[in-house]
């Protein structure tokens, strides 16, 4: 796991980063169109090739195509994500309508998701404002204070099979069909969700009419489910690592939480492409208006940011065991570590 950041003192004035990163915030329409084209066209091609391989019985090739197709869907979701921040195209209309159309493929209602995600950026790392757009995280004290049933439910929620298996299915396929958490927040969440549902039904109906019900399910459903699992993993690893940072409301600062509470997921170049540089998450939280296609420029021009919250692909696998925020040690710990600490305390008391 990464060590505590040694650069903390030299970069104490974290608010200056908003000014330093200002020149990178301007999107480019031509670049946006190009990024959309080199993602959408390969995705459509992969989708069509999956149909062809199924039709002619090349099931091994069909299976091989699922992962790259899902990776391209993840990249489309990251474009939708940038549109939600107003950072993909220079104008809001272009961002909003591209985001809404992509939402039909990702099954994520754009306007509803954008509102929830804005809350995530405004509260990430705030122990007193958890619950919207976050991976549910309990403190050690909160977990210990729960009943046996409550602790079991939290452990079940945190199990990898639920977090990265059942969870993504529930989030993208079921929860996103209703404005959960925003039922009484006005008409926008409802219009966004219901309009997306109608568009998804129209898209599915057209494809089923064209190629049949079973082929459509065998193609699009695996792509969505694998893509959703990858997306949830990426969101998890962006804030759920040992040396992340959580504070109470009075000590919360957006820029400090960006640098100390968000990871730099240092992925191989090909995975950076498929994930649209979302691994450069600390920079994204410092300035969410920076287009994803400029995040690598920031790392190039400010190499000191490469040292902040860095996780490699191998290191990130160890983060799965982390589940509880220990306010005393200021780090995420595992259930095993909590049991070990409880056992040691019992032996000392005896």
Question: Can you offer a commentary on this structure?
Answer:
The structure is a single chain. The protein has 350 residues and is mainly alpha-helical. It starts with 15 loop residues before the first helix and ends with a helix. A hairpin with a 4-residue loop joins strand 4 (322-326) and strand 5. The protein contains 16 helices and five strands. Residues 1-12 have low confidence and may be disordered.
Please give a quick description of this structure.
This protein is mainly alpha-helical and 350 residues long. The chain has helices spanning 16-20, 29-55, 59-84, 92-106, 110-123, 140-145, 148-158, 160-174, 187-211, 213-239, 254-261, 269-274, 281-286, 295-301, 313-317, 335-349; strands at 138-139, 264-266, 310-312, 322-326, 331-334.
